[in-house]
Write a structure and sequence with these properties.
The complex is a heterodimer.
Chain A lengths: L3 H10 L4 H12 L2 H17 L9 H20 L1 H5 L14 H5 L4 H11 L2 H12 L4 H8 L3 H30 L1
Chain B lengths: L8 H6 L5 H13 L1 H19 L8 H15 L1 H7 L2 H5 L4 H16 L7 H13 L8 E2 L3 H8 L19 E9 L2 E10 L2 E9 L9 E5 L2 E7 L3 E7 L3 H11 L2
Classes of the chains: A mainly alpha, B alpha+beta.
Chain lengths: ~180, ~250
Amino acid sequence: MLDPQDRIRFEQLVLPHLDSAANLARWMLRNRADSDDVVQEATLRAYRFFERFHGGDARAWLLQIVRNTCYTWLQKNRPSELMTEFDEEVHQRPAANPETLATQADDRQRLMLALESLSPRFREVLVLRELEGCSYKEIGEITGIPIGTVMSTLSRARERLRQTLTGAAGAAAKEAS
Amino acid sequence: MNCELAQTTIHGYFDGELDAVRSAEFERHLEHCTQCQSVLEGIESLHMQLQQSDLYEHASPQLREKVRKQLAQATGAERVAARHSWKRFLVPTFGALAAAAAVIAIMLFVVPSRTQSPLTAELIDAHVRSLQPGHLMDVESTDQHTVKPWFDGKLDFIPPVSDYAAQGFPLVGGRLDVVDGHDVAALVYARRKHFINVFVWPNREKESIADSSGSRQGYNWVAWQSRDMQFCLVSDAALSDLRELRDLIHP
């Protein structure tokens, strides 16, 4: 049972990673309002399960709960986003449309749209590695991807993102000429 | 030319995830593999773009505030603290008061009425029903290898069945039950003189039950979900016993 002592411990160990939680959820759900709700729900769940946290990497532990809460939320509210997963190699999402991307003058905006166009499985490994700086071991822990598969998933995700961005650059060049 | 290393190993190299030997090997390879050189440049440039674009989304002050408030509510400490200052908590003569406050805090935490879904009420009713004579078990066995196959063909999913007799939760049997119009598996465990019903059913969107616990009508329940199954333990045994069993089922 959690008492005020536990709450203090939770605040010291877990809450410092609220930025990481907010960042992952924001990229998984692609909008701030929904991701804030999910982060709230996830921190409450983390708190209720805090007695099951036996030390170790508190960030990975929290992010694992955030990630699972994101998937539960997506399953409930946007199941179609998860359904297209298996053909992610061929499937192109609307936001990845090269013309849409090419019209973005701003690099940040272009990168954001390209990242958001990836499937959740690709997006999560990229966000965890490139933005959050997680090790492969941590990525495996958070996403449940076997550690041996983290590298190849990341490789495919980077390739996908690169293709999306090059596609956009190509379209922009075509428009300019 | 299609270099195999350019597919995956190169990412481990870039991310510093290769051990020293493999890393040195790859560097030797990199010296004369033009494909790997160009792929590595691509990875580097993508990495730089991502770093420089300020894509990291920090938690807003509003979110921080909401999370803190929510934690305070979950502990019940805020309400208690509002009535009794923290200093008084620490004075030994107020030990009894502190103990009472702790009990209140515990009650506030375990009996949050808002976390009780109609589904929980249904599961508790199912538990109560099961205690009527002759209703508890369809298959009576302490052998997990008898109970598990019994479900085979009766449900469109197979519940995980293990005996935890060594940990003080012997399996005594199982039965089929219907909750909210759906078939669920009910495994029955004993805890000293109490029975614990473990309700298991596949994740279905509509009946989702959040990770939660509480009491109602003198019965305790602990619910959670795994990747594809939902679980709810119901019993008049102590909540701490139910949590212990939960941790055995899902360590």
